[in-house]
Amino acid sequence: MGRPDLNLLVTLDVILAEGNVARAAKRLNLSPSAMSRALARLRDTTGDPLLVRAGRGLVPTPRALELREQVAHLVEAAETALRPASQPDLRRLDRTFTLRTSDGFVENFGPGLIRRVAQEAPGVRLRFMQKPDKESSGLRDGTVDLETGVIEGMIGPEIRAQALFRDTLVAVVRPGHPLAKGKMTLDRYARGRHVSVTRRGVEQGLVDDALAACGTSRTIAAVVTGFTAAIALARESDLIATVPARHTENLRKGLHSFPLPFPAEAITVSLLWHPRNQADPAHRWLRACVLEVCSGDLP
Questions:
Q1: Where are the alpha helices (DSSP H) in 192-261?
Q2: CA angle, 126 as apex, 297 and 246 as ends, to 5°?
Q3: 20 to 30 Å CA-CA from 81: which of 29, 104, 172, 228?
Q4: pLDDT in tens, 148-187
C-alpha cells in the first residue's frame, strides 16, 4: 500500500468542518469540480463515503464524525510546526548554553555576560569551557553552542562567524620593572626577556613577525598556552608578556601596561556557531547578548 497524500488532510479538515462541498471549495479557493475530485480521492483513501446525501444536503458518516476532531488537531499541529519559530518566553526559559572561549574571555567578559543574561532569562545557565586549540568539532557535534577566538585562515563553510571586536596588543610588566619607567623604544622592548603565548606548539608568532619586519627579534624565556599564565608570570618576574588589550583588561589590573613601540597587526575576535542554531530564537538572543557585552553597549 502506497503512502497517502498528506495534502489531503487540509482538504478533509475543511470538508468535515463545513459539511458542504461548495462552501469547502470556496474556503480552499477551488472550483466545485476540483473539490468533487478531491472528495472522491478522500473517499478512496479512507474507504468511507464521509459525506452522504440526506434530503437536499449532506451529512457526515460515523467515520467522518470520528475523524473530524482528530484531523483538526493534526492540521493545527502541522501548521504550528511549519510556522516560523517565535521568540521564547525568556523569563521561563530553562536551558544551558555551552561556550568554548579563548583564555581571558571569562575573566574579562564573563561577569558582564552573566548579568546581562540574568536580566532577561534567570533560568538560563552558561557553561564556559576552555579552548586549548582551534578545533571546532564541538560546534559540529552540538556539544558546544558558541565559540570565541581569532579566526586563522579559512573556516569550514558549515561554521558561521561574526566579528565581536578588534583588539590591539600591549606589553605587560610588573610594577617596578625597569621598563615601567622612561620612554619605551623598540630596542628596550626587544632586549628584555619575554614570555610567549602560543597554542600551536611554536615559539614564533604575530609579535615575532612584526619584530622581524623591523629588523630585530626578542629573547623568549618561557612559552605558555594562555594569556592568564603569561600575565601571572609577568606579575611575579621580570618577564614581559605581550597580550591583547581588551581581552585581558581585568587580568592586567595592578600591572604596568604600555603600547608596543613598533607596528603590530590588530586582531579580530569573532563569535562562531553552527548553522543548526542559526534560526533558533533562544540561540539568536544569546548571540545578541554576547555581542552587546563585547561591544561595551551595556548601561
A1: 206-213, 227-235
A2: 40
A3: 29
A4: 988 866 566 678 899 999 999 999 999 999 999 999 999 9
For domain 90-167+268-295, give the CATH superfamily: Periplasmic binding protein-like II (3.40.190.10)
Quick one: cell of 216? 630585530
Question: With the C-alpha atoms ordered 77, 83, 89, 94, is the resulting torsion angle positive or negative?
Answer: positive
CA distance 56 to 163: 69
Domain 8-82: which CATH number of 1.10.10.10, 1.10.10.60, 3.30.70.260, 1.10.3720.10 = 1.10.10.10
The sheet that has 169-173: what strands, in order across it? Answer: 219-224, 193-197, 240-244, 169-173, 256-259
CATH class of 169-265: alpha beta
Instruction: Give this prediction's pTM.
Output: 0.68
- The alpha carbon dihedral of 15, 21, 22, 28 has a sign of positive
What is the grid cell recorded at 98?
555551552
pLDDT band at 299 (very low <50, low <70, confident <90, very high): very low
How many Å apart are CA 109 and CA 247, to the nearest integer?
8
Give the per-residue pLDDT at 237: 96
Amino acid code (one letter) for 3: R
Dihedral angle at the C-alpha atoms of 279, 281, 283, 288, nearest 10 degrees? 100
> DSSP string of 55-68?
TTEEEE-HHHHHHH
Number of CB atoms found within 10 A of residue 19's CB? 15
Q: What's the CA gap between 243 and 105, in Å, rounded? A: 13
Q: CATH 3.40.190.10 residue ranges in the chain?
A: 90-167+268-295, 169-265
Closest CA to 42 of 12, 64, 16: 12
User: What DSSP string runs through 176-187?
Assistant: T-GGGSS---HH
